Amino acid sequence: MRAVVQRVSGAAVHIGGAEHARIGRGLLVLLGVEVGDKEEELEWLCGKVARLRIFADGDGQMNLDVNEVHGELLLVSQFTLQAGTRKGNRPSYIRAARPEEAVPLYLRAKQRFSELVHGHVRSGEFGADMQVELVNDGPVTIIIDSRLKE
């Protein structure tokens, strides 16, 4: 499971030209589920994201997590995070889990984030053609891979 976590001052998802979800200050999490991912990877990743100390404290140091700043979280599925680019110029997505495997984990991630993050947790729609709008604050962007534990 891979996640791209962005500290945002605001983010939104649009589907079919209409706003589907919006958050203020918090985290935008793009999530890609890999073939064979299990609940253990999901638990580790969700906990890591919720505890990331990437918000500034009173001294301007990144010492606070999303809950300490009363932030929100927007979760968006993104199978392209599992792209393989080793051969040629066309990305391969064979590592990306099929919907029957990925959807339950994506929905579980949304549920788990709702338990871990005290602010609003919003999400995109799995498999939809989405337009994601964000203001990356910093910019701060972190890539997390549950299999590498980094």
Task: Indicate the topology.
Elements: E1 2-15, E2 18-23, E3 26-32, H1 39-51, E4 55-56, E5 62-64, E6 72-77, H2 99-116, E7 121-123, E8 130-145
Parallel strand pairs: 3-6, 6-7
Antiparallel strand pairs: 1-2, 1-3, 1-8, 4-5
Question: Would you mind describing this structure in some detail?
Answer:
The protein is an alpha/beta fold and about 150 residues long. The chain has one domain: D-tyrosyl-tRNA(Tyr) deacylase (D-tyrosyl-trna(Tyr) Deacylase, Chain: A, 3-Layer(bba) Sandwich), CATH 3.50.80.10. Helix content is about 20%, strand content about 40%. It has 2 helices and 8 strands. The strands form 2 sheets. Strands 1, 2, 3, 6, 7 and 8 form a 6-stranded mixed β-sheet that branches. It has a two-stranded antiparallel sheet with strand order 4-5. A hairpin with a 2-residue loop joins strand 1 and strand 2. Helix 1 runs parallel beside helix 2. It is globular. The termini are close together.
Highlighted features:
2 helices, 21% helix, six-stranded mixed sheet, single chain, globular, 150 residues, alpha/beta
Radius of gyration (Å): 15 Å
Structural class: alpha/beta
Q: Number of helical segments?
A: 2
Q: At the fourth CATH level, what is the homologous superfamily?
A: D-tyrosyl-tRNA(Tyr) deacylase
- Name the helix and strand elements from N-terminus to C-terminus, one letter apiece: EEEHEEEHEE
Largest sheet: 6 strands, mixed
Helicity, in percent? 10-25%
Q: How is the quaternary structure best described?
A: single chain
Specify the overall morphology.
globular
CATH architecture: 3-Layer(bba) Sandwich
| pLDDT < 50 runs, ≥5 residues | none
User: What value does the average pLDDT take?
Assistant: 96
